[in-house]
Design goal:
Its EC number is 2.1.1.320. One of its GO terms (molecular function) is protein-arginine omega-N symmetric methyltransferase activity. It catalyses: L-arginyl-[protein] + 2 S-adenosyl-L-methionine = N(omega),N(omega)'-dimethyl-L-arginyl-[protein] + 2 S-adenosyl-L-homocysteine + 2 H(+). Keywords: Methyltransferase, Mitochondrion, Transferase, Transit peptide. The relative contact order is 0.17. The protein is globular. The chain is α/β, with parallel strands linked by helices. It has 16 helices and 18 strands. Strands 2, 3, 4, 5, 6, 7, 12, 16, 17 and 18 form a ten-stranded mixed beta sheet that branches. Strand 13 and strand 14 form a beta hairpin.
C-alpha cells in the first residue's frame, strides 16, 4: 500500500465517469459457482450421453485400467481434441459459470490499483510485465489495463507489457478480441509466444502456452480462478492405511464411470501425505506446487509480486472436487468434457511449496481484501455517476455478489507472494532510527480513508 495521500490519488483517478466500463448486459449477473460440492448433490440428469471424451476414456480404461483423478481431470479439461477448456471454456452467463471480473468492473480496477501500489512501494522500476495465468475471456486484464491507461501520467516512464498464459485456442481468440479488437498476429518466428498484439491503449500483449515461456524480468503475476482447475490427486484414509482414489469403468453400467480405491499404497501416496495429517480425505495438486515454485523462483530472482484469488482453504477441507454445467452442480464423472471441473485450492500447500523463497500473505477472504482496497468508496462514486435505475440496481447487486459472505465474499480468498525484503528491511549497517518505515501491502491491511 502506498502512503495515504498517494493512495487517495490512485483511487481519485478512477472516480470520474470516464472510468466506467461499458456494461455488457442489462440484467443481474448469474450466480457464481458454489464454493464446495461437499454435502451437495448435483441435480438429477437424464441418461448418460456417450460423449466423444467418454468414449476416449472408456477405451483408455479398458486398455490400462483405472486412472488417477488428476489424469481424469487433465483429459476432461485440456485434451487437445475434446477437452472442456480447449473446446469451449464456458465462462459468463451463457456458459457454465461466472467469475468476479464478469460481475463487476470494480473487481479488476482494484486489482489494477494493487499492482500500481506495489510498483510504487518497490521504487517504480523502469519496466514491469503483467503476467496472467488462465485469463478467461480477458475481462480482468481489460479492466486492469483501463486503470493503467487512466494512470498513464504516473506510468509514462515505465515500459509495461502484458503476457497471457493460455492453453485454450478458443479462449485466446476471445481474449484477443476483448483486448486488441482482434488485431493480433501469430508469432512463428518466436518459439515462446504463439501470438502477439497491441492493446487498445497501446500496450504490447503476448500469448504463451506455459509459464516457463514467459521472459524473465520484474513481473506482476495474476492467477484468478486458475489453480482451482488444475488436476488433483485424491487420497482416502482406510483401515489398511492411505489409498489413492482412482477413476474406473462401472462394471454394472459399462458406459459409466465410478470412483474406486487403489488396492495398495503407492509411491504417490507416500510422497504427498504428511505423517502429521489429521484429515481422512486429502486432495493434493502437484501441478500447483510446481507453478508456485516457478513463481517464487522468478520473484526471488527478478522481483515483483504474485496475487492469487481463488476458492480455497488453509489445509482444513477434505472433499471439494465438483463439476459445473449451466451454473449448476454437475456429476464430475458424467459426460466428461462438457462441464467445468474444479477443486478448492489448498493455500497451506502453496505456502509450503514456495520453500521459503518468498514471503507470503493470506489467505484472507475476498470481502476483506476488497474492503481494504477501497471498494466502498468506488461503489459510491459509480452510484453517483449512474443515470438510470437499472444501472444503479446492477451496481448494488454486483457489490452484494462480490462482498456478501454467503455469496462470493467468503468463498474466495486472496493470497500473495512477495520478495522477503518487501516485508522485512535488509539488515544493513546503519542506524535504526534512519530507516524509513516500509509501506504496508495493499489489500492485506485495513485502509483508513479520513
Amino acid at each position: 500500500m502506498v502512503p495515504l495521500p498517494a493512495r487517495r490519488a490512485l483511487l481519485a483517478a478512477l472516480l470520474g465517469p470516464a472510468g466506467r466500463r461499458r456494461l455488457p448486459r442489462h440484467h443481474a449477473p448469474a450466480a457464481a459457482r458454489p464454493s464446495s460440492g461437499a454435502g451437495e448433490r448435483p441435480e438429477a440428469e437424464g441418461p448418460s450421453r456417450a460423449t466423444a471424451m467418454l468414449r476416449h476414456l472408456l477405451l483408455k480404461l479398458r486398455a490400462t485400467g483405472p486412472v488417477t483423478v488428476a489424469e481424469y481431470m487433465r483429459e476432461a479439461l485440456t485434451n487437445p481434441g475434446q477437452g472442456y477448456y480447449t473446446r469451449r471454456g464456458g465462462i459468463g452467463e451463457s456458459g457454465d459459470f461466472v467469475t468476479s471480473p464478469e460481475i463487476s468492473q470494480v473487481f479488476g480496477e482494484l486489482i489494477g490499483i494493487w499492482y500500481i501500489s506495489e510498483w510504487i512501494a518497490t521504487g517504480k522500476p523502469k519496466a514491469f510485465q503483467l503476467v496472467e495465468l488462465g485469463p478467461g475471456r480477458g475481462t480482468l486484464t481489460d479492466d486492469i489495463l483501463r486503470v493503467f491507461n487512466q494512470l498513464a501520467s504516473l506510468l509514462s516512464k515505465c515500459d509495461v507489457s502484458v503476457h497471457l498464459v493460455e492453453v485454450s485456442p478458443k479462449l485466446s481468440e476471445i481474449q484477443a478480441l476483448m483486448l486488441t479488437g482482434g488485431k493480433v498476429q501469430s508469432n512463428p518466428e518466436d518459439k515462446s509466444a504463439y501470438m502477439k498484439g497491441i492493446s487498445k491503449t497501446g500496450i504490447p500483449i503476448f500469448w504463451y502456452r506455459d509459464i516457463q515461456d514467459v521472459p524473465p524480468g520484474y513481473s506482476f503475476y495474476l492467477a484468478h480462478e486458475f489453480f482451482d482447475a488444475l488436476p488433483i490427486h485424491k487420497f482416502q484414509r482406510t483401515e489398511k492405511g492411505w489409498r489413492e482414489v482412482l477413476v474406473d469403468i462401472d462394471p454394472e453400467v459399462p458406459d459409466q464411470l465410478r470412483f474406486v480405491l487403489s488396492p495398495s499404497s503407492t509411491p504417490v501416496t507416500e510422497n504427498f501425505i504428511q505423517p502429521e495429517e489429521t484429515r481422512d480425505h486429502v486432495e493434493v495438486c502437484p501441478e500447483a506446487g510446481v507453478i508456485i515454485q516457478r513463481l517464487a523462483c522468478r520473484i526471488e530472482k527478478d522481483g515483483g509480486a504474485a496475487l492469487v484469488a481463488d476458492y480455497g482453504h488453509d489445509g482444513t477441507k477434505t472433499d471439494t472436487f465438483r463439476g459445473f454445467q449451466n451454473h449448476k452442480l454437475h456429476d464430475v464423472l458424467r459426460a466428461p468434457g462438457t462441464a467445468d471441473l474444479t477443486a478448492d485450492v489448498d493455500f497451506s500447500y502453496l505456502r509450503k511449496m514456495t520453500q521459503g523463497r518468498t514471503a507470503t500473505l493470506g489467505p484472507i477472504k475476498q470481502w476483506e481484501f476488497l474492503k481494504n482496497m477501497g471498494i466502498d468508496l468506488r461503489l459510491q462514486v459509480l452510484l453517483q455517476n449512474s443515470r438510470d435505475t437499472a444501472t444503479h440496481e446492477q451496481l448494488l447487486h454486483s457489490y452484494d455478489m462480490l462482498m456478501n459472505p454467503k455469496k462470493m465474499g467468503d468463498c474466495f480468498n486472496f493470497f500473495a507472494l512477495l520478495p522477503h525484503h518487501r516485508l522485512v528491511r535488509p539488515d544493513k549497517k546503519q542506524k535504526p532510527e534512519s530507516k524509513s518505515p516500509l509501506p504496508p501491502v495493499a489489500g492485506f491491511g485495513e485502509l483508513l480513508l479520513k
